[in-house]
Every structure is written in structure tokens, then in C-alpha cells.
């Protein structure tokens, strides 16, 4: 836990040096925020005028997200010299989900194969974007940001700059892929079959989750006449739902604040739940959401039939009670960090809506917020940026890894 946390903090501190030495940010807090946002694949930025930055720095921003997507520690595990026993401990501290399913005995071999899938998908996305209206530089940067579910762009108005339905649909597809467990993707490619995906209950829940919010958002936008064209309303709905649930954070709405409070409520839920375990997405993951919902359903059944013995089942197998307790504890701590962060941001003079949305978007590693920070965090103070940087790290490291080192018992022998 300590090694993982220090690795992320140290590499984020080194990664911010181009921003500091180049004089592109006014304070160290801005540079640290931008770099942490990159490595954690949050995508929140302090820059108002992104197009004024040199290409080298724009590429570096996208590279931080690409590296952070697969995980700095997971990236290290792919190197041959890493000891498999020590690697397993780091893997458990850094990766996401309820349980860590491994398809090979050596964790370094697991990392190399998943990293190969990650690189292959990135190259494919570069070619698809380059075939559209993007030049090669924009295609590379957006591919890095998309497959990592990061969200950094090379233009001030992001994906809207290209005004292309083709780009939006391609990015939507790969944001969806980035929010799926990469082990499932590898297995599907290795066996040349999608049966593995269909057998995974978490995948089915994720698809159903997306479908519900896409329909709800589409009906809201269409009935409110925010978009006159049904196709445009559907395209913006599916893009915005997938980008928020996958924690990518690309924005295609000209002004997301015009989507009104109903969509904001939906967005908070999507950002909090997130994608599948073992993916590059943020949030507390759909697998934990499944366990929480099923456990709640069982509690209602026990209220009606006190003598009934029920278990939470995951992929047809009973989940240990200890795992259910861990999930509930994780969700409680996750919400606790949001509450504390909201309180600190309110102390800094932010409105309640802005503080809540900032906290949720940062712990879920999404990027866009509501209110004054809808497009960027240039107006946030240094105190707020430091707080949100720590929140982004906590979210990326699954909360327990970062928060655990502040517990006194952690340091006792």
C-alpha cells in the first residue's frame, strides 16, 4: 500500500516538471493538479486555452493518461525483472474490483499480455481516428486519452472541435471498451469468441446500466427540445452517458449546464458507479454496485421471511459474507471521502453544488464538473486544487490504499 501510494505521488511530482520549468502554470499546485489528473486519468484541467500549449506538452498530457490508464505499477509489472511474489502484492494494492481474477500463474506474464491488448487497442483507435477528420497528432493524443478513459483533448472545446458524428461514435465505442475488464477482452480475443463477455454477470449489468441512462437522457433532451434532431439527441446522449460512466470525461455538449438539474442527478449516479472492475474506468465499479443491490434485496426478503437463508450470488456463485462486508465498507469510505472533500471545498468558498460535483468527479476520476468548473478548474484556488489532487489519487488507488496509510494501526508492528 505504501509502495503504491508513494510511487504515484513521486511520479506525479516528477511528471509535473515540464509544466513548472516551461512556465505554463502560475503555481506548483496547478502543475501537480494537472499531472495527477493525467496519471489518474481524471481529465480535469487547469488550462483555459489548451490550443496555446506547444505540441510537446499536449502530447505529454495525453501520455500521462495513457500510462496511468494501465496503471504505473501494472506497467512496471510487465518488465521481466519484477519478482512475481512482490508483484502480486503491488497488483492487489493497485488493481480494482471485488476479486482479482488471474488467468496465468505469474503476475508479470499477466501484466505483459494485458499490456499487449492495451497497446493493440490504442494503435487501432489511432488508425480509426486518423481515417476521419483528425490529423495524426490529434489522433494519437485522443487515442491515448480515450482508451485510458482519461479525457484530455488538444483543443479548447474538445471533441466538439471536429464537429464529426464519425469521431463521436468511434470514441463512444472505445470508451465503452476501455470501461470493460481487460481480462475479458484478452480472453475473448484469445478464444476468438464473445461468449466470455456474455457469461459475465457484471458485463450484463453494465450494459443494462448504460442502456437505462442512455434512454433516460435521450428522452430528457428530446422532450426538452434541447436538440431538435432525434439523431443528434441520441448521439449526444449515448456519448455523454458512456463518457461519464466510463470516467473518460469528454464533453460534446456546447454547454452542459443547459441540460438542467435532472441530468445532473443522473450524471452524479453515473460518475459514482463507473465501469467494470479490471478496466481503466473510475467510480466504485459496477461489480460493487451489483453486490450492494443484491445484498439490499436480500435484506428486504429477510424482513418478510426472517428464517430465510439467502446469499449474494455473483456469476452463479455465492459470495462470502466477508466480501460483502468489504464492499459495503468500501462504499461507505468512498462516500465518506466525498463528504469530507465537499466540506473542505465549501470552506474554501465554493457553492454546495460545485463542491459536491467537484468531489464526485475527482474521486471517480471523471473530469468535468458542474457550475464554474464545468469545463476547467482554472478558477479554483490552490487549496482546492491540492484537496482535489488527493481525492483523485484516493479514487484511482481504490480509496483504501491511500486512506489506509493514514490509519495509526498501519504503522504498528
From TrEMBL:
Primary location group: membrane
InterPro entries: Cat_transpt (IPR003445)
Signal peptide range in chain numbering: none
Compartment(s) of residence: Cell membrane
Keywords: Cell membrane, Ion transport, Membrane, Transmembrane, Transmembrane helix, Transport
Topological category with respect to the lipid bilayer: Multi-pass membrane protein
Transmembrane segments: 70-93, 114-132, 169-191, 203-223, 262-284, 323-345, 386-411
Family note: Belongs to the TrkH potassium transport family.
PANTHER family found in the cross-reference section: TRK SYSTEM POTASSIUM UPTAKE PROTEIN TRKG-RELATED
Protein's name in the database: TrkH family potassium uptake protein
Organism: Porphyromonas miyakawae
Taxonomic classification: Bacteria, Pseudomonadati, Bacteroidota, Bacteroidia, Bacteroidales
Amino acid at each position: 500500500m505504501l509502495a503504491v501510494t508513494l510511487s504515484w505521488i513521486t511520479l506525479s511530482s516528477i511528471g509535473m516538471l515540464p509544466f513548472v520549468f516551461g512556465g505554463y502554470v502560475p503555481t506548483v499546485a496547478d502543475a501537480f493538479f494537472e499531472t495527477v489528473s493525467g496519471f489518474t486519468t481524471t481529465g480535469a484541467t487547469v488550462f483555459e486555452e489548451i490550443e496555446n500549449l506547444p505540441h510537446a506538452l499536449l502530447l505529454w498530457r495525453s501520455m500521462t493518461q495513457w500510462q496511468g490508464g494501465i496503471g504505473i505499477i501494472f506497467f512496471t509489472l510487465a518488465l521481466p525483472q519484477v519478482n512475481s511474489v512482490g508483484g502480486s502484492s503491488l497488483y492487489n494494492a493497485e488493481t480494482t474490483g471485488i476479486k482479482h481474477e488471474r488467468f496465468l500463474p505469474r503476475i508479470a506474464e499477466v501484466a505483459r499480455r494485458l499490456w499487449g491488448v492495451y497497446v493493440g487497442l490504442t494503435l487501432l483507435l489511432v488508425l480509426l481516428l486518423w481515417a476521419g477528420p483528425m490529423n495524426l497528432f490529434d489522433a494519437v493524443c485522443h487515442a491515448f486519452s480515450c482508451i485510458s478513459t482519461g479525457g484530455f483533448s488538444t483543443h479548447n472545446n474538445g471533441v466538439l472541435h471536429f464537429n464529426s458524428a464519425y469521431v463521436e461514435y468511434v470514441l463512444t465505442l472505445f470508451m465503452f471498451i476501455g470501461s470493460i475488464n481487460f481480462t475479458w477482452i484478452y480472453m475473448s480475443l484469445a478464444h476468438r469468441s464473445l461468449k466470455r463477455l456474455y457469461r459475465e454477470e457484471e458485463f450484463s449489468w453494465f450494459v443494462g446500466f448504460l442502456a437505462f441512462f442512455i434512454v433516460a437522457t435521450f428522452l430528457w433532451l428530446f422532450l426538452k427540445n434541447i436538440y431538435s434532431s432525434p439523431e443528434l439527441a441520441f448521439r449526444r446522449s449515448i456519448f455523454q452517458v458512456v463518457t461519464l460512466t466510463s470516467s473518460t470525461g469528454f464533453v460534446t455538449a456546447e454547454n452542459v449546464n443547459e441540460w438542467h438539474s435532472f441530468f445532473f442527478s443522473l450524471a452524479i449516479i453515473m460518475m459514482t458507479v463507473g465501469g467494470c472492475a479490471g478496466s481503466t474506468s473510475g467510480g466504485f465499479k459496477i461489480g460493487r454496485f451489483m453486490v450492494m443491490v443484491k445484498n439490499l434485496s436480500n435484506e428486504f426478503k429477510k424482513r418478510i421471511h426472517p428464517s430465510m437463508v439467502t446469499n449474494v450470488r455473483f456469476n452463479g456463485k455465492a459470495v462470502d459474507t466477508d466480501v460483502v462486508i468489504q464492499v459495503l465498507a468500501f462504499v461507505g469510505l468512498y462516500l465518506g471521502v466525498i463528504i469530507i472533500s465537499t466540506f473542505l471545498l465549501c470552506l474554501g468558498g465554493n457553492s454546495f453544488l460545485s463542491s459536491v460535483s467537484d468531489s464526485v468527479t475527482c474521486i471517480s476520476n471523471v473530469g468535468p464538473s458542474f457550475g464554474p468548473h464545468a469545463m476547467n478548474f482554472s478558477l479554483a484556488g490552490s487549496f482546492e486544487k491540492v484537496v482535489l489532487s488527493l481525492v483523485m489519487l484516493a479514487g484511482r488507488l481504490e480509496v483504501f490504499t491511500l486512506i489506509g496509510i493514514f490509519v495509526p494501526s498501519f504503522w504498528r508492528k
